[in-house]
Amino acid sequence: MKTSDVVKIVAAAGGLVAISAVASAQTTIQAPKVINITGATLFENFFNAPASTNDFIDADGDGRSRQSMPPVVDQLAPFNNPVSYALDGSGFPAQPWAVTYRAVGSGNGLAELVAQGSSFDLTAFGDGVGIENAENAYYNRTKFIDEDNGLLSLANTANPGATPFRTVVTPRAFGADTLTSLVAAQPGDTSVDGMRIDMALLDVPAAWFSTNVLSNGEPEANPGASGYGNNPRTAVTVTGASLSQGNKLKDLGSLELKQPGVPGTAGVTVYDTAVAYVPVAPITNFGVGLEEVNFSDLQWSIVAGRLRNGENLMVITRDSGSGTRNGFMNSLCIDPSWGVGENVGPKTTVNTRSLPGPDFAPSNKGGSGTMELTVRNNRLAIGHTGAERGIGRWLDSGELDILGVVNDVNGTMMAQAVRPDIFAVTNNSDPDTGWQIGGPETFSTIGDPAAESIADGGLASGEPQMSNSAAAAYLNNIARSIDNFVADAEGDENNFTPAEFLTLNFVLLAGLDAVPDLNDPCSYISNSALVLDVQDEAQQISQLGFPEYSTFGFNGIYGIVPTRSIATAGAFADGAAMNEYAAFDGTGIPYGDPNWGGGFSIAMAVAEANRVAGDFNNDDVRDVNDAARLVEAWDARVNGATWTGNGKLSPEIVGDFNGDGFFDRYDVRYWADGLAIDPATGDLDRVGGFEAVDAAFGGNFFGTTLATGATYADGDSRGDVANGSGAVFPARGFAPVGAEGWNRNNAVAAPFANVIDEHDIEYVQDMIANGSIDWKGSLIDAAAGDLSADINGDFCINVDDVVELVEGVLKTSIQDVDLNGVVDAADEQLVGDTIAGIITPADPANPLFTEGDLNGDDVVDAADLAIAQGGSLVCAGDTNGDGIINADDLLAVLGAFGQTVASACGGGPDLTGDGLVNADDLLEVLGNFGGNCN
Question: What's the rounded Cα separation, in Å, for the pair 667 and 228?
């Protein structure tokens, strides 16, 4: 056994007891070897399990292990406070290892490995420098940081990451396991060492986390492709202002990934040790009302914050440093940096951001626990987490459930909804019937743990060694137990080992019919290393065999009552007592109750009345038919009007769509913009939603005015999509409030000053600056688009929406440049004056419609003047947008004749927007040949 890191105890409040000593090779005490692990929150169960550090390879050399005769259970990392330096009765260390695990997320762990894998952090906790916070953190399975309660008694704020101790290194060449120093040290004392990261645990291979900055890429890029991991989009606040929180993946800096067949470089090359396959599952609040979802809907939800049909669910995401996010997105053919969901809020583990209330934000959750908490407490929420986390946390208690996935992308017409039960996970080669969402759980290290000698548990690989031999032994103890399990799954020596625990809770890679292609993660390839005995054992003992994994709603279909972050009696519009909601008939509905509908705490009638979010008419579906009851509920709650519907309904449970704890006009707008589903088509009917709200209210529910002075017509509020003040911006998807009158912290009393004007026109024009957006047909388009800008409701955001906004909503013509409702000489003069420099736009790089930029190309020129003089934004027969219908357009149609095109939104050779280039498009050109739209 080699020397390595030993415990350095720091005298500090809340830390372990300080000890001073000097020892020699004959010393009768032995310091534990320190092993520092950072990364994935998904694998937290493993680090809590004693089996994870049960000795398989005889790492401490005491002759006791699962391979000794007879096999014995020898715990290498028993908890001791203070740290034990004693020897056991056989003269071996009583506490061989001191293992710290900090749950920071996979990519964040990789970043810590890059920064502190070769050097020691000496800084104190909380100073914003070096190794900092985690969602949860443990020393030998005992917590010192808790996601709900913060720093616990073991935490030592004098140390990096609040770890209970620092370490001192004895060089590998020293030879004997002796304690060289235990002199107490304070932060900044460079005479001793601090904290070094020995390994980062990732839910996916390190290559899936490594960004390629050659370009900005696109949503469907694979690892290693140009621009992979380099989405430039940053998060926004709830009012749409930009945040610094980014979505990019991690830069390896001076490190490099191990390449097959290429020898590594000491201190530079990162090696992956894959230990299991971890299925990741889409989770749902029961209020969503869905049991299954299409693969493509998951793609749209995580890239654009809505389902493909336009339905605006509350999509909860992890931050881009999360391996769970990475495995989920990559399995869905999505570059994880593009998996932004609602894209609202900074990275957080703060509970108030996970609960309904003024601080709620749906994105960038810093851990799996925070993700699950958020989905629990928002009745419209879907998210993703490790499937194995369900038992003991939220699945067997009936708090959340897993959505079955229909693979309509990689599967066939025979695709069915698949759930992550153990048989679907292991027999996974067919995308129609197998579970193919997840990734290989991987320890990444600088240096190869397999480089250790066979006697020390390695494979003598000949690659560069890790600097900490105890950390190498930790990994080899896991790897060799897996090797033995694969060779003899039912051998007695496999009981109580890391491999057995991995089989119980996850799946060893040898137990899968197919494994993800490391270069194309959403493609699964036949597993050449499949061992049927391992698969059979997994199918017999895995907790994924619990019936909850194969049956939706096995423990009920209601979930729990959401908890609002403000627990003061009467703080919300329902006037409820502390820690509860008030139904319309006064029934109190306690927060967090897991038994509602179960006949224990809350009557079944209450549960049924509040089961599906948005279902105000209690027909068990959320669609456009809820409009009348929705408006009546608003009038009753805000104005005290009579409620004639189900008295057990709480509108704050059923209708708080944006998560601010209230039910108000903002939620009504959210419904019209994103939840008014047409029951006949199953698609969002955004136009119909706004019309239905106005009709139910008796006209102009939102108090919207038109810049032209025209008379408001039902549904016109659909055109209010932007704000002119510069203080509030659309937080697309998350808060479709028209971006006006938004006052998040005083929602009931917030004034509404909604006006449809040139700023709304500009928003739509900017949305299509690079061409039409085919929302349903193109994931790239959906990533760039805001479906609130689809003014005419055809799922195409294009020039037709500008025309609809000007002509249909504002009830004027494109030539009405000043939007005063009258076309006269002043309009043409305005464009001419801007061209001549007499008028200077407020933002010369982005002139508005009312400043003469009629075609939205950010330049006021002759093309705009031609439109002002009677031209048209829509130019029939023009395939290339040059305003002239000529031979170029004819050749474009003839060249693509008979082809199916990707976009059904018009433009290009598909002039009719039916997805085909055919005789209809040819007639469009011929009928307008020689025309000049300018």
Answer: 36
pLDDT tens for 103-133 read 998 999 999 999 999 888 888 888 888 898 8
Residue type, 109: G
Q: What SS3 class is residue 261? A: coil
Q: Quick one: pLDDT band at residue 184, thresholds 50, 70, 90?
A: very low
Question: Whole-angstrom Cα distance, residue 292 to residue 552?
Answer: 9
Contacts (Cβ under 8 Å, ≥6 apart) of 379: 285, 286, 287, 288, 559, 562, 613, 653, 654, 656
Tracing tokens 């709900």 back to the chain, one arrives at 148
Rounded Cα–Cα distance for residues 773 and 661 (Å):
34
59-87 burial by CB neighbour count: b if 16+ within 10 A, else e?
bbebebbbbeeebeebbbbbbbeebbbee
Q: Is the pLDDT of residue 911 over 90?
A: no
Q: Which position has the token pair 């708090």? A: 399
* Distance separating alpha carbons of residues 485 and 284, to the nearest angstrom: 35
Smallest CA-to-CA distance from 767 within 683, 856, 895, 837 is with 856
pLDDT confidence of 240, banded at 50, 70, 90? confident
**What are the structural domains of the chain?**
1-199 (no CATH), 206-247+279-305+312-426 (3.40.190.10), 580-754 (no CATH), 799-927 (1.10.1330.10)
Report the alpha-carbon distance of residue 33 to residue 38 in Å, rounded.
17
Round the CA-based radius of gyration of the chain to a whole number and report it.
31
Taking Cα atoms as reference points, which of 138, 141, 168 lies closest to residue 155? Answer: 138
Contacts of 408 (CB under 8 A, 6+ apart): 294, 295, 296, 415
> Which of 712, 704, 711, 585 minimizes the C-alpha distance to 651?
585
* Residue 839 neighbours by CB under 8 Å, 6+ apart: 830, 833, 851, 852
Q: Determine the Cα–Cα distance for residues 814 and 926; give it in Å rounded to an integer.
A: 26
pTM listed for this prediction: 0.89
Per DSSP, 171 falls in state: P
Res 907: pLDDT: 65
Residue at 226: amino acid letter:
S
Residues 657 and 670: their CA atoms lie apart, in Å, by: 7
**Distance from C-alpha of 268 to C-alpha of 270, rounded to nearest angstrom:** 7
Judge whether 131 and 149 are in contact, CB under 8 Å. Answer: no
CA angle 537, 543, 545 (to 5 degrees): 75
Query: Which amino acid type is present at position 61?
Result: G
Contacts for 591-597: CB closer than 8 Å, 24+ residues apart: 591/561, 591/562, 591/563, 591/564, 591/567, 592/560, 592/561, 592/562, 592/563, 593/560, 593/561, 594/397, 594/398, 594/399, 594/560, 596/558, 596/560, 596/561, 597/556, 597/557, 597/558
SS3 label, residue 515: strand
SS (H, E, C) 672-727: HHHCCECCCCCCECHHHHHHHHHHHHCCCCCCCEECCCCCCCCCHHHHCCCCCCCC
| Tokens, residue 103 | 């749950």
Is residue 141 packed enough to be buried (19+ CB in 10 Å), middle (13-18) or exposed (0-12)? Answer: middle
d(CA 410, CA 844): 47
Rounded distance, CA 377 to CA 793, Å?
A: 31
Residue 651, preceding peptide bond in cis (omega within 30° of 0)? no
Distance between CA atoms of 521 and 277, rounded to whole angstroms?
A: 13
Half-sphere exposure of 261 (CA within 13 A, CB side): 0
Ramachandran region of residue 281, left (φ > 0), alpha (ψ -120 to 50) or beta? beta
Q: Is 890 helix (H, G, I), strand (E, B) or coil?
A: helix
Please enumerate, as own/partner, the contacts of 626-630 that have beta carbons within 8 Å and a separation of 24 or more.
626/671, 627/676, 627/689, 627/692, 627/693, 627/695, 627/696, 628/692, 628/696, 630/655, 630/668, 630/671, 630/693, 630/696
